[in-house]
């Protein structure tokens, strides 16, 4: 087992998801605060869930272009270890939120071609972690969580000055190859470990973590 690989399972909605994630050996649990997502949680539900999280599991709040007021509500109510910004937040906005909330920030950057790579360098100056995800298709309802992969060869051998996670269309079947090709030390998955949109599957979570850490 390769304990150097850290896994984030995103979009948890039920207490049994937390148990599945922790017992599989994942490092991060993600809660989605985005009303259009089938994984959306309101602040009260997220608070209840986060308070039940096993010690040692890092709790990440995923938001999309959230206002200060929304972020304040989330951060005040939910015990968190990191904020994941998954919208079109500018580097300036990211830096402002990092100062304001005092939480580590992970910024998602969508990749579809070489032209998207400079953004990773730019955001790398103002964040604690980068999330290298597939760019959503034009007109997609969700900016992430679409189960869509990008061409991993685009980032093979690339390094950034902060830790980073690979995301986008990962599954128990492809995660090992994705890690091998990109050199990622952290991976993030949502739809690839579900039995239906928004419904996490304990067996798939276990299989994903096992394959990632193999
Ligand atoms: O999971 C969601 O519903 C979601 C909604 C809005 C923005 C991002 C979302 N998920 C993140 O997207 C990537 C990839 O997900 P998938 O594995 O391809 O389904 C992942 O980082 C999720 O955290």
UniProtKB/TrEMBL annotation:
<protein>
    <recommendedName>
        <fullName>N-(5'-phosphoribosyl)anthranilate isomerase</fullName>
        <ecNumber>5.3.1.24</ecNumber>
    </recommendedName>
</protein>
<dbReference type="InterPro" id="IPR011060">
    <property type="entry name" value="RibuloseP-bd_barrel"/>
</dbReference>
<dbReference type="Pfam" id="PF00697">
    <property type="entry name" value="PRAI"/>
</dbReference>
<dbReference type="GO" id="GO:0000162">
    <property type="term" value="P:L-tryptophan biosynthetic process"/>
</dbReference>
<comment type="pathway">
    <text>Amino-acid biosynthesis; L-tryptophan biosynthesis; L-tryptophan from chorismate: step 3/5.</text>
</comment>
<dbReference type="InterPro" id="IPR044643">
    <property type="entry name" value="TrpF_fam"/>
</dbReference>
<keyword id="KW-0028">Amino-acid biosynthesis</keyword>
<keyword id="KW-0413">Isomerase</keyword>
<keyword id="KW-0822">Tryptophan biosynthesis</keyword>
<dbReference type="InterPro" id="IPR013785">
    <property type="entry name" value="Aldolase_TIM"/>
</dbReference>
<keyword id="KW-0057">Aromatic amino acid biosynthesis</keyword>
<feature type="domain" description="N-(5'phosphoribosyl) anthranilate isomerase (PRAI)">
    <location>
        <begin position="7"/>
        <end position="210"/>
    </location>
</feature>
<dbReference type="InterPro" id="IPR001240">
    <property type="entry name" value="PRAI_dom"/>
</dbReference>
<dbReference type="GO" id="GO:0004640">
    <property type="term" value="F:phosphoribosylanthranilate isomerase activity"/>
</dbReference>
<comment type="similarity">
    <text>Belongs to the TrpF family.</text>
</comment>
